[in-house]
Design a protein that fits this description.
Layout: H1 25-38, H2 40-43, H3 53-83, H4 88-108, H5 111-116, H6 122-129, H7 137-146, H8 153-161, H9 163-166, H10 168-180, E1 186-187, E2 193-194, H11 198-205, H12 211-226, H13 229-249, H14 255-263, H15 267-296, H16 320-330, H17 336-347, E3 351-352, E4 364-366, E5 374-376, H18 383-405, H19 415-436, H20 440-476, H21 483-498, H22 506-509, H23 526-538, H24 546-554, H25 561-566, H26 576-595
Parallel strand pairs: 3-5
Antiparallel strand pairs: 1-2, 4-5
Length: 601
């Protein structure tokens, strides 16, 4: 059995270069410890924001500078934790960062309530008297939009002081998932033992072509999940209770209204995704599932069989350097500035591709303002890996451009737009390969991968959103979120979507334990919105709208998600782009069916 590497054993070039954030761990610690005292540069303005425009601008400028420092310190701690969640030093750093985050947040919580308490017309007068204050226009407009839901200064400071406590459920979930959750090794039919873990299952075994290995790994994986189901139910239940309580304190009609207000999107968009898109995408995905079962020769299709390649004997394996070339070439339509950014990502060790004990599963991109993005992925060399890396580079390009063109407080785009740049990368990568290959096996693999992206965003995350909708309704009605209820509700959602195309075992019912998105607000449904936008843009043909697209990326958070999409001609307020996306998926499934001998009777 190949023993998984420890973090100290992986090659340096496979890891990200955290010295770009802080030269040493000691330098980071010193910076973190200095932040509470540095908050005095902002708190000295407490009670004085009515004295004039210059005082308000100084306060906002100094608060922004402090937020930049705080963000860098927090990201460093998060990256250490993600590198190896079993490392006591990383665990301590993560906890220390959370404490300081709460302290600084509490100290600065006076700013918004004090601004909103200014007499009517004061902000408008300030802006007229000091035009430079318009640099904070977006931030001030957002505050005014939240005014009906903002509490008094003391209450806001109390909530901010509880920041680490409110983040507790997520932190416990991450710690348990990467550290305490034990997934046993398993044996194949020949008696050989294979290592397994949360990360190994999702990166290696879930898509393995050998059904015996895949299902053996699945059985061991779900046994590990089962041992933590009550713990994870408690953490998730507490997180949902936090969200419900905060929405009520801020006088929103319900939790979803509170979270949608923060995202600057109408209820209509959210409900279109949950209802119309979910209903429309179910039929082609059921056909795809039945095709999968037939081609793979399976007696039944289990949840763990949904990501198995249909043509495993022809699946490509690529080195990291080959992936680099393929990705950079495929994104050439985005222009030379973008190409330079991509080269820097590979040359500058922005990417952590190691596979080691304690490393966070999945993939993500963290983008500290004024530095550069950091991408986490566990490299296996599959074409799926290439698409995932391209996806995260999309986040990197987006936030890097936003950082170059906007001040810090204006960089963060609302969640329903966040996934558009990343999924556009995937679509451009697929088009690049398909336009240059006549090899039937290669084309089939790429079509499968594209369908995998749509499955990920239009099924996996969309069904997460459906469960989240039920979570809030259950909690708002005062009912408990127990492990049994979560299993049963997850099963009902899967049955309703897949019908008889999928055989649902107990492991499928525990899918709610696998994703951290439930702890990040109303996040899951936004994946679908992003992919709808990317699909509509890519459908125009190479080169069309890409110049405007880079301008949209550089706009950061200065416009709403619907406004950003509209700038490249995508109307998310209508059903048209959603229907077009479903039709595109239906066509991909039909092409795959035709290439594999027709649909199942």
């Amino acid at each position: 059995m190949n023993k998984p590497l420890t973090r100290a054993e992986v090659p340096l070039q496979d890891t990200w270069n955290l010295t770009d954030l802080f030269a040493t761990h000691e330098a980071w610690s010193a910076e973190l410890q200095s932040l509470p005292a540095a908050a005095e540069s902002v708190t000295r303005h407490r009670g004085r924001l009515g004295e004039g425009a210059a005082v308000l601008m100084a306060c906002l400028d100094e608060r922004e500078a402090l937020f930049i420092r705080l963000q860098r310190a927090l990201i460093y701690a998060n990256l250490c934790q993600a590198s190896d969640g079993t490392d006591p030093v990383a665990q301590a750093a993560y906890a220390q960062a959370g404490t300081v985050h709460a302290q600084v947040g509490a100290a600065l919580a006076f700013v918004e309530p004090e601004i909103l308490a200014l007499p009517l017309g004061t902000l408008q007068r300030y802006l007229a008297e000091l035009p430079a204050l318009q640099a904070h226009q977006v931030e001030l407009d957002d505050m005014l939009a939240r005014q009906p839901h903002t509490l008094g200064s003391e209450a806001e400071q109390a909530i901010a002081a509880l920041g680490q406590v409110l983040e507790g459920p997520f932190n416990v979930y991450l710690r348990a998932k990467s550290g305490d959750l034990q997934v046993a090794a398993f044996q194949d039919d020949a008696g050989r033992t294979h290592p397994n873990s949360f990360n190994l299952f999702e990166s290696t075994w879930e898509g393995h072509p050998d059904a015996t290995l895949r299902r053996g790994a699945w059985a061991a994986f779900t046994t590990g999940l089962r041992s933590m189901r009550h713990t994870f139910a408690a953490t998730l239940g507490t997180e949902v209770a936090n969200q419900v309580a905060l929405a009520r304190l801020r006088r929103y009609p319900d939790t979803e209204s509170a979270l949608l207000h923060e995202q600057k999107v109408p209820h209509a968009l959210y409900h279109r995704v949950l209802r119309d898109l979910q209903s429309g995408i179910s039929a082609p995905m059921r056909r795809y599932a039945r095709l999968r079962q037939r081609v793979l020769g399976l007696d039944r299709l289990l949840y763990c069989d949904l990501k198995t390649p249909l043509a495993s004997q022809n699946a490509q394996q690529l080195s990291f350097d080959e992936a680099r070339t393929l990705i950079i070439d495929s994104l050439a339509p985005l222009g030379p500035e973008y190409q330079t950014m991509l080269q820097a990502a590979f040359d500058g060790r922005w990417i952590d591709r190691a596979t080691n004990v304690g490393k966070s599963s999945g993939a993500f991109c963290a983008s500290p303002y004024g530095v550069h993005p950091f991408i986490l992925i566990s490299w296996t060399g599959s074409m799926r890996n290439v698409f995932t890396l391209a996806h995260e580079l999309g986040h990197a390009g987006h936030l890097l451009l936003a950082g170059r063109h906007q001040r810090f407080m204006n960089t963060r785009t609302s969640l329903p737009f966040i996934e558009a740049p990343s999924t556009l990368h995937e679509v451009l990568l697929a088009r690049h390969i398909l336009d240059r290959s006549t090899d039937a096996a290669v084309r089939r693999e790429v079509i499968e991968l594209v369908l995998g992206t749509y499955h990920h965003n239009f099924v996996t995350h969309l069904l997460e959103a459906e469960l989240q909708h039920h979570l809030f309704a259950q909690a708002e009605a005062g009912r408990a979120l127990t492990a049994d209820w979560l299993d049963a509700t997850q099963r009902e959602i899967l049955v309703r979507f897949w019908g008889d195309a999928l055989t649902l075992d107990d492991g499928a019912a525990m899918t709610w334990m696998r994703q951290p998105h439930y702890y990040i607000g109303l996040y899951p449904y936004t994946y679908s919105v992003g992919l709808v936008t990317a699909t509509a843009l890519a459908a125009r043909g190479a080169g069309q709208g890409l110049e405007a697209w880079l301008g949209v990326l550089g706009a950061g958070g200065t416009a709403t998600p619907l406004e950003l999409a509209a700038r490249v001609g995508v109307d998310l307020s209508s059903a048209a782009p959603f229907e077009a996306a479903v039709a595109w998926v239906d066509g991909l499934v039909a092409e795959l069916e035709a290439g594999l001998g027709g649909a199942q009777p």
